[in-house]
Design brief:
407 residues; homodimer; 12 helices; 2 domains; seven-stranded mixed beta sheet; alpha/beta; four-stranded antiparallel beta sheet; 36% helix
């Protein structure tokens, strides 16, 4: 008689965004005349840019001729893309990451979910709190998180080390007393929008090397960094090659949420105590459970790094960051305590009058008809906070701020 | 100190196809004048067809306009594609599979590798032997296979139930004495090219239901079936909805090896002893570790089901099956014992003079300059057999047969 993976049964009820969707649906049903503005989900709204569209069309044409047809891609990615990544994301910033250390994938969500698989199930996991829920959920599925202790919004997993990123810590994680084996850091952070400085991150790299821990560094939002002292890659820190895996996405910089392309960096220097390279394990996972990102998508990724492509995607980032600036300004003027929005497309606000995150969600939906995301959905330290995203259109962002100011 | 997933260290040395690549490279270096013909790897060679190219171009155009841009896809797939699949692959064949039971993915390799994750690690696995290596390899990575016992080519994993598919069993698996929990069946089979009849498969469905086992049925080659008594889906068998998951690919029917699209079927009737639906577990895995197949690809998948698309992809299948017929005929005339090639693009031959699979590989490469795949690479019962694929061009297939006949 077959048995299921019982760890799955530990996963907490319905997913954050489906709860939001249900609440919004109920509200619009009751209030058909109200125009709801969504500043909740982290999906982009601006279309792909001309250079990327051209690359996609060209690649499709190639797939239509026997001489230029492309079947199975190399498991780890085409050289043309891995070389472009190595050059533009690393070499030009003075970082040495070889094309061979880059693994092209169908996106950072897959990578951030799958990466835990190459580690022992008894590794102790630490996560920034609040953070992107995939890190904890995928470790629940693998049985690393222990038992749920506490109530729905501020409860915790008994075996997870939480690294609070709150007003008290200036929204950066502090070194924990208990030593973790795997440390998930997302910087600039989703959902807080705050980013670690190079000095702050260097402390974590040193800590990881001292304790033989691995940092899984999610750099999905690096294109939004505007301040000089914030690193674009963990490999800007000395010693990171021997303790860090870095995850990248084309979703937020180039608008690829529906295109699906990302990559992971696993340096050869990252080895376990027996000298086994994590690179070889990840290569084996890629080769066995994945058949490469599509040729068409990889050509689109290459186009992102062309000089025209770079101009265009910087335009996209600027567009969203103008929204972020409007949200920051609007909320400040309306008397809210806010952070983020400078190095990331997320603005993080403290709920007024000690409202819970979900109470503020209901409040904002009812009185401003604006949808945001309750901070408690991202971890226990998110309770009492709320996320607004800059991925809307200018028009909607302006309208939302007007409504909030009148609330 | 972090620890790795030690199961990965149990994976056997270099992968079949990389060993082949190295041997071919060495041969061509020594014999630069010889033109090597590759009938080894299961990759397609014919370009995408016009209707599919049009759908891809249209979808790319949509991604370039804000009004028609598509961001994150629904985790489980767009309705337009799931409905097309439900209608054409199932309803039209008299099978009831609802769109909601279909999970769109980036391909059957990912699905066949990931599906084991929703089961307990102490499930006992049975596999057809020989078979596509991903089933066993992904269970090695999860620790279900025990120890390797025996030599390189005919050794076995101590905890795996092997289901020999050889001349002696007429290339169909027979019910085992030991009861498995998970049963991997690929039919039409890769690499033997043989397909189970409906009666044969019904026995397995009954066996699975009696023993509360789950059949993971890989239908990647169903488009190549030409005989009436061979089922296109396991759900043609009575009772399969309560014991079977079915995996489908667009790679081999529509030439999507480099496009990447597939789907899994998990019926709601498939439940564990506590009544937990596997559907809910697979949905959770999709939602947590995957961000949907790309919009562009899903539109291409939809186009496969249009009437023009169907005509075109049937043309592709016919093209390859003409190759299969030529290979079958050529090998028979040359005195080989052959099977497969009627319901699948693979022809399976018994090596002459009791040669090992690898000896015959070297022999064929040296004397006919033709590359095939050693049967032992697919499992212990593959030793003494050899696979040729029909995915080459007509010209190369004809030339290869001429050379073999003169060998």
């Amino acid at each position: 008689m077959f048995k299921i993976n019982k760890n799955y049964l530990n996963l907490r009820g319905s997913y954050l965004f489906s709860t939001i969707a249900k609440k919004v649906e109920a509200f619009t049903k009751e209030n058909p005349d109200k125009k709801v503005i969504r500043l909740g989900i982290g999906d982009v709204t601006q279309p792909l840019t001309p250079t990327i569209l051209k690359a996609l069309h060209n690649a499709v044409d190639e797939m239509g001729k026997a001489e230029t047809f492309h079947g199975y891609a190399p498991d780890l990615g085409y050289s043309f893309l891995r070389e472009a990544i190595s050059k533009h994301d690393f070499e030009e910033k003075g970082i040495q990451i070889a094309p061979d250390e880059i693994f092209v994938s169908d996106g950072a969500k897959s990578d951030s979910g799958n990466i835990q698989e190459i580690f022992s199930t008894d590794c102790k996991v630490a996560v920034c709190d609040p953070v992107y829920p995939v890190y904890v959920d995928t470790n629940i599925m693998s049985g690393r998180t222990g038992k749920w202790v506490g109530d729905d919004s501020t409860g915790k997993w008994s075996d997870v080390i939480y690294l609070p990123c709150t007003e008290e810590t200036n929204f950066a994680p502090e070194l924990p007393k208990e030593i973790p084996d795997l440390i998930y850091i997302c910087s600039p952070n989703n959902p807080t929008g705050s980013a670690m400085t190079k000095d702050q991150l260097q402390k974590w790299v040193d800590f990881a090397n001292e304790n033989k821990a691995v940092i899984i560094y999610d750099a999905a939002y690096e294109a939004y960094i505007s301040e000089d002292n914030v690193p674009h890659s963990i490999y800007e820190c000395a010693g990171a090659r021997s303790c860090a895996i870095e995850l990248h996405s084309f979703s937020k910089n180039a608008g690829f949420t529906g295109v699906r392309l990302g990559f992971a960096v696993v340096p050869h220097d990252l080895k376990d105590s027996d000298g086994v390279e994590l690179h070889s394990l990840w290569a084996r996972r890629h080769g066995t459970k994945f058949n490469g990102a599509p040729y068409i998508q990889q050509r689109a990724g290459e186009a992102v790094y062309s000089s025209e492509g770079q101009k265009e995607v910087k335009g996209l980032v600027s567009y969203y960051m103008e929204n972020a600036a409007m949200i920051l300004k609007g909320l400040k003027e309306a008397g809210y305590k806010v952070s983020g929005g400078v190095n990331a497309p997320y603005v993080w606000l403290k709920t007024p009058d000690n409202m819970t995150s979900w109470d503020f969600f209901d409040h904002l939906l009812k009185h401003a008809n604006v949808v945001g995301t309750p901070g408690s959905g991202f971890g226990p330290s998110g309770e009492g906070y709320f996320r607004l995203t800059a991925f809307g259109t200018h028009e909607n962002t302006i309208a939302a701020m007007e409504r909030i100011s009148k609330m």
